[in-house]
């Protein structure tokens, strides 16, 4: 993940990750819903104080997480 000095995500990297998620999926709608659901979970985790203060928006974070899970499935627990 490329984060600039001011804590923002590189927009080109984020766009490539999003395109990769959609391209590799069998159902674009379900992938979009999965991203939205993950972002909603992250947003509530932020409100509950479960996550550290982050300057990355929940949707951006969910795209990055899902992209990492897709590209590196061996990193997942279980």
UniProtKB/TrEMBL annotation:
<comment type="similarity">
    <text>Belongs to the RNA polymerase subunit omega family.</text>
</comment>
<keyword id="KW-0808">Transferase</keyword>
<protein>
    <recommendedName>
        <fullName>DNA-directed RNA polymerase subunit omega</fullName>
        <ecNumber>2.7.7.6</ecNumber>
    </recommendedName>
</protein>
<keyword id="KW-0548">Nucleotidyltransferase</keyword>
<dbReference type="GO" id="GO:0006351">
    <property type="term" value="P:DNA-templated transcription"/>
</dbReference>
<keyword id="KW-0240">DNA-directed RNA polymerase</keyword>
<keyword id="KW-0804">Transcription</keyword>
<dbReference type="GO" id="GO:0003899">
    <property type="term" value="F:DNA-directed RNA polymerase activity"/>
</dbReference>
<dbReference type="InterPro" id="IPR003716">
    <property type="entry name" value="DNA-dir_RNA_pol_omega"/>
</dbReference>
<dbReference type="GO" id="GO:0003677">
    <property type="term" value="F:DNA binding"/>
</dbReference>
<comment type="subunit">
    <text>In cyanobacteria the RNAP catalytic core is composed of 2 alpha, 1 beta, 1 beta', 1 gamma and 1 omega subunit. When a sigma factor is associated with the core the holoenzyme is formed, which can initiate transcription.</text>
</comment>
<comment type="function">
    <text>Promotes RNA polymerase assembly. Latches the N- and C-terminal regions of the beta' subunit thereby facilitating its interaction with the beta and alpha subunits.</text>
</comment>
<dbReference type="GO" id="GO:0000428">
    <property type="term" value="C:DNA-directed RNA polymerase complex"/>
</dbReference>
<dbReference type="Pfam" id="PF01192">
    <property type="entry name" value="RNA_pol_Rpb6"/>
</dbReference>
<dbReference type="InterPro" id="IPR006110">
    <property type="entry name" value="Pol_omega/Rpo6/RPB6"/>
</dbReference>
């Amino acid at each position: 993940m490329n984060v600039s000095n001011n804590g923002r995500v590189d927009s080109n990297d984020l766009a490539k990750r999003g395109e990769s998620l959609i391209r590799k999926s069998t159902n674009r709608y379900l992938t979009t819903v999965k991203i939205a659901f993950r972002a909603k979970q992250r947003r509530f985790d932020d409100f509950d104080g479960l996550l550290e203060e982050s300057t990355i928006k929940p949707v951006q974070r969910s795209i990055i997480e899902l992209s990492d899970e897709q590209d590196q499935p061996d990193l997942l627990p279980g």
